[in-house]
Design a protein that fits this description.
Length: 414
C-alpha cells in the first residue's frame, strides 16, 4: 500500500504546521479532536524561523522551528521543538561591551553587524598589540558532578578563526574555523564539540565538558595561527549570544540581559477519543540530540483509567529506544538502537489480544505482552509521562485505531 493511502487510515495525523498560544493543530481529524494542548510557562525561549533567523517565542506557544542543513540552508517545513528545562548561566549573553565581561588584551565594539536575529546587534571582538591571548571572559561557579555546555555564535571578520575555552590554558580550548565551518582542534577535558552553520556566515560553536574545579573561566578569543599571538590592534571576529548551560549538548539559544534566564520544559498532550478499542498503532517521526543522565522520556501513549502507558525514551548511556508499561505487568522493555541528531521513524502496533509489533527505521520486530484490556486514550508528553524529559524534534505523529499489517509498518518507517 502506498504511504499516502496508509495515512488516510489514521485517526490522528499531526505534522507541525499551525499553532496558536496553548494549541497545536492536527491535520486529522477535521473536528479538532486531534489537536494538542501545549504548555511552557515562565521562561525565555527561541526558535529558528522560516528565514533562518532566531526569534523569541511567547510562553505557552509551540515552537515550530526550521532545521538548518550543513550549509545553513533553511528547511521547507518546520519541526515541533520540545526541549527540557535549561538555564543560561551567563547573565549578559549579548552585551559583550558590558563590564560583566572581562576583556583581556582585547576590546569590544557593540552593534557592528547583523546578528542571528537579523538586526544590527552583534559585537566585534578586537585584538590588542600584545603578544598573548586576546579574549573576553566570565568566571562562573560550577559543579564538578555535572556536564556543562558552552556555546556562542561566531562570525569571521579580518580573522577567520576563533576559540572557546573553559579555563586559562590553551590546552582547554576549542578552535573553530569560521570559513569552512569545522572544529580545528579540541583541547584536553572537552567531551564533545560542534559547529553549526547559520545564515549570513554565522556559526553556532559549542563544546561540552565536566569541570574539575568549582570555578571556571568561560572565554571567547581571537585566533591567528595560535591562541597566543602578537596582535595588530585591529584584527577581529564577530560574536553574539553566549550561553553556558548544565547538560551534555547545546539547546536552543536563551537570551539574557542582566540575570540568568531559564527556558521551561515544553509539554504537549491530547486526550484522544479516536481509539475505540484496545488495538492501535502509533507512529512517530522524530529526532533527538542525546542523553542527560539516565533514562529520559520523549513521548508516551497512556491509559487515563489504569495510569499505565507505553513510553519512548533514551535509556542508560547508550542510544536506546525504550518501551514499557508503567505500573506493573505488560509490554516488556524493548531496546533498540536509535541515532542521535538524525531522523528516526518508529511505529508500535498492538492487536489487543497480547501481540505487539514495532518497526524502527524499517526493521520489523515482534513480541507478546499481557494486560490486553488497556485502551490508550492520551498521547504526548508532560502530564502524560511525567518525570524527566529529553530533547526531541517531531516531524509527524500518526495514530491508527487498528493494528497495521507488517508491510504497512515497514512502509511507514522506511
Amino acid at each position: 500500500m502506498a504511504l499516502q493511502d496508509i495515512y488516510k487510515k489514521a485517526s490522528l495525523v499531526m505534522k507541525p504546521a499551525a499553532m496558536k498560544e496553548g494549541k497545536l493543530y492536527s491535520q486529522q481529524p477535521h473536528s479538532g479532536d486531534g489537536d494538542f494542548t501545549f504548555s511552557r510557562a515562565n521562561g525565555v525561549q527561541t526558535r529558528i524561523n522560516k528565514h533562518g533567523l532566531i526569534e523569541v517565542v511567547a510562553d505557552n506557544t509551540p515552537r515550530l522551528s526550521y532545521e538548518l542543513d550543513d550549509n545553513g540552508n533553511v528547511s521547507e517545513c518546520p519541526t515541533l521543538l520540545l526541549e527540557p528545562s535549561r538555564t543560561n548561566l551567563l547573565e549578559r549573553s549579548e552585551e559583550f561591551d558590558n563590564s560583566y565581561w572581562t576583556k583581556s588584551r582585547s576590546s569590544i565594539t557593540a552593534n557592528q553587524t547583523t546578528s542571528p536575529y537579523g538586526t544590527n546587534t552583534a559585537d566585534k571582538l578586537i585584538d590588542s598589540t600584545d603578544n598573548n591571548t586576546h579574549l573576553a571572559f566570565r568566571s562562573l561557579t560550577v559543579s564538578t558532578s555535572d556536564a556543562y555546555t558552552f556555546s556562542c555564535f561566531l562570525k569571521k571578520g579580518s580573522l577567520d578563526k576563533a576559540f572557546l575555552a573553559f579555563d586559562s590554558t590553551a590546552s582547554q580550548s576549542v578552535v573553530f574555523d569560521l570559513t569552512n565551518g569545522s572544529v580545528e582542534s579540541e583541547g584536553t577535558g572537552v567531551t564533545s564539540s560542534s559547529i553549526i552553520e547559520y545564515p549570513n556566515e554565522w556559526y553556532k560553536c559549542s563544546f561540552t565538558h565536566t569541570p574539575t574545579s568549582t570555578t571556571r573561566l568561560y572565554r571567547i578569543g581571537t585566533y591567528n595561527g595560535n591562541i597566543s599571538y602578537a596582535g595588530t590592534g585591529t584584527d577581529f571576529v564577530y560574536l553574539f549570544g553566549a550561553q553556558v548551560e548544565v547538560g551534555s549538548y547545546p539547546t536552543s539559544y536563551i537570551p539574557t540581559s542582566g540575570i540568568a534566564e531559564t527556558r521551561a520544559q515544553d509539554d504537549f498532550e491530547n486526550s484522544f477519543t479516536g481509539l475505540t478499542g484496545t488495538a492501535a498503532t502509533i507512529f512517530l517521526d522524530f529526532e533527538t540530540k542525546g542523553l542527560d543522565g539516565n533514562f529520559r522520556r520523549l513521548f508516551a501513549v497512556h491509559d487515563s483509567v489504569t495510569s499505565d502507558g507505553i513510553y519512548l525514551g533514551i535509556y542508560s548511556t547508550n542510544t536506546i529506544a525504550f518501551f514499557g508499561i508503567d505500573g506493573g505487568a505488560g509490554l516488556p522493555d524493548v531496546k533498540d538502537t536509535v541515532s542521535f541528531n538524525e531522523r528516526n521513524k518508529l511505529v508500535l502496533s498492538f492487536d489487543g489480544i497480547g501481540n505487539y509489533k514495532y518497526s524502527l527505521n524499517g526493521s520489523l520486530q515482534t513480541g507478546t505482552y499481557i494486560g490486553t484490556s488497556r485502551q490508550y486514550d492520551e498521547i504526548g508528553r508532560g502530564n502524560v509521562i511525567g518525570g524527566a524529559s529529553n530533547n526531541i524534534k517531531i516531524n509527524q505523529i500518526s495514530v491508527f485505531d487498528e493494528a497495521l499489517s507488517d508491510s504497512e509498518l515497514t512502509e511507514l518507517t522506511s
